[in-house]
Amino acid sequence: MIAPLVASILTMATVQTAPSDWSAFPGDGAAAIGSEHVHDPTVIQVGNAWVCFSTSGDGFAVLRTSKDLKSWKVWGPVLPETPAWLLKRIGHKSLWAPDIAKVGTTLRMYYSASERFGGNGSVIGFAENASFDPDDPLKGWVDKGQVIESVIGKDTFNAIDPEVHIAPDGRHWMYFGSYFAGLYVVELDPATGFLKNPASPAPVLVARNTGDRGNPLEAAAVCRRGEWTYLFVSYGLAAQGVRSTYRIMVGRSKSPTGPFQDAKGVPMADGGAVNVLKGSPPMFAPGHSDVLQDSSGRWLMPYHFYDGREYWGTQWGLPTLQIRELLWSADGWPLPGLPLEMRFGPSGGTSKSPVGEWLHQADFGRVDTLEIRPDGTFLSYAAQPRGPRPGPTKGKWELAGDLLNLHWVLSDGSVAQDGVQLAYGGKYYVGRNQNGIVIRGIRK
Q1: Given 21, 28, 143, 218, the catalytic residue
Q2: I need a surface site. Which of 168, 221, 241, 324 has the fewest CB within 10 A?
């Protein structure tokens, strides 16, 4: 069982909800101005500004900036022209999944491109900016060329979705891959940004999705917290609107080359992973995440989701940027906080008591109502049940510091010993049960 949380929780303002912010679980559909049409975001804080790079669709990656994460200004492609070498190698201008590495005062934007969707004829290259100015963010970028490639019929991996991680010892590691044989890591030369050993790079396998047909996983995101290096990945399908099946998973290792493992010790290379975030309407298929720590020390997880309220091309589900606070359990596993874009927060004032009505969700599924009573009991009412409305499920609760313990009453009248222990902040709780399922609650 994953240990309970000891993290602080976002405190939201006490205001009324509005139809434009509708979500089955409040906040899941929140979005900032200018956050639409974003795929595969990477976000970095430069001074007092936020900068987002994303998949272009047609051009050399799209750059946005924000002062407050409530609205984004779209500047357009990082370079006005796609480099000749890349057009010759790939034959089109669509760049995928950029990632930013900050080396001293220099920004390096790693990017990928493929000959065709679904194939592994792909390349990863990078562009560099030695004097990045968030007020003039398109100035100063210089393309440096190819870092690594994968060739159809020759290589088993797919050279897309780069993620560069700078370890505490100063070594640079690039994670990459999609479908095919899985995700890999290779070492870079910090001085040049290219492969450290170009003649024999020797990529190391770090993750596969053995549970879904076709090994659908991609979009590595890596961070270091304490003694652990965390590898976030996206399982499932993207770019299908509301039919997409992306979900964010994670494993961890004490080495940047792995083996990364889940909470039970199963290696990610063998399919092990811990769930972090799945779809909850109108937020469909959240995925291709980034992970960063802002200047205040707060952990954030940007990603795109498909907004089921908006039409996109020929289908429902507009790709949209969202940035969610990332919380941590006592034994060091990440859990989803609330989105920063959430404008209409839960009520509850400053009371520490959990007594009241809550919206309660397990495994990002049906949202029930939990009535927590002053006498140490609670009632759980199923939302919109099929057929006659069933009676409430009963349980008992206790508050121990920042942990809210919920124990359901079993059919024989006994109280379950393996209850759910949740980080609690007066207005929001989150944790995992004994089966590793994410449990969330927010005041009505």
Answers
A1: 218
A2: 168
